[in-house]
Fold this protein.
Amino acid sequence: GQLVQSGGGLVQAGGSLSLSCAASGRTVSISNMGWFRRATGKEREFVAEFYWSGGSTFYADSVKGRFTISRDNAENTGYLQMNSLKPEDTAVYYCAVRKAMSTYNYWGQGTQVTVSS
């Protein structure tokens, strides 16, 4: 399988950006898709995740109410809509997928999001 990310870029504080993550290969075995980020000098942190088959979504407290995670079933693509962006959201964002009862072990290439104050 492969995950190909697109989107991201530079935006002013308060603005919006959207990230996408196209999955290929054995997508039928995917249980969850998640988004993570790593800011310079910091550890990678969880942002959001959802069940690939639909249903519950989960968000880090720092993005709850501002970010929305979703999926286009027909395109096997996951999305992260980011609104009301803050400078502290600046990071490289990664999508990832995992099988049931497993850890995230397939990762996208990462995309830079920069929020200016």
